[in-house]
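User: Hello! I'm new to structural biology and keep hearing that structure can be predicted from sequence alone. Could you demonstrate with ABC transporter permease? Please show me the input and the output so I can see what each looks like.

Assistant: Of course. The first part below is the input, the amino acid sequence of ABC transporter permease. The second part is the output, the predicted structure written as tokens.
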Amino acid sequence: MASLTARFGPGLGGTILLLVGLWLIGMVLAPNLMMLDFSLRPNLMPNQIGTDADRYTLANFIALFSDSVHRAIFFKTVWASALVTLTTLVVTYPLAFWLAKIATPRGMALALVALIIPFWINEVLRTLAWYILLAFNGPLNAVLLGLGIIAEPVRWFGDFGVLAGMVYAYILFMLFPIYNSISTLETAQIEAARNLGASTVRIHRRIVIPHAKAGIATGCVFTFMLAAGSYVAPALLGSPGSRWFTEIIYNWFFEGGNWNRGAAYALVLLVLCMLVVLAALRVFRVNLADVAK
């Protein structure tokens, strides 16, 4: 705070702090407090509001873990989001290293343009493109049938479709933090290790990955939170057997009309994401200041 006022002056610095405070209160704190209040109240008829029945209760939270179906979907969303995060990390790490240390300036520019341009399109339209690609009579099955890899069309919708759609949707949120971290690594360190006989795996394990751990932690946190809170990809690319927890929340709010139960479910998901952030910071041994960079 002192550095902000020293840099911009007390007038502009104070205005910036005031705007940030108003944004945090109005867009972060107030909605979450309202959601907490909703989650702790029963779903009542309008004429029951304010009566003895309108009191705080944990029934909405208990309902989640007492319902075997919803409990199973919740835990499936947890491990499936972790799988999306791991898959995205595996896909983007080699690309990030290539962009940061191997690619020529022209090659890097072309690769970045090819990666960024599709994201100018709305997420719903990009997911619909995957829906067409994975359709029963879509291009993917046509190519595989033409190559003789499969004997009959495959239904890709379900867990595979959701995984593919999410990895594609959130690839940049993993790629850019890792790329930024690796790009600050001195190339001389890699060359010195290679000259001393270190293998490629050892170079990455002992030099590159420890240096890029803040970027990896940031990418994993972003990807997990986006995957756990995603609705479009599971709704369009999923199947009845691959429902996502966000679909349950949506159903409580907009189909079941039980905003109290939906708020409780959403709050549980929010707490899960916060715990994942703290766990990731502890596993990678980084702090919030490193992630913010």
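User: So the tokens describe the shape?

Assistant: Right, they're a compact way of writing down the 3D structure. Reading them back into a model, for example: The CA atoms of residues 158 and 276 lie 25 Å apart.
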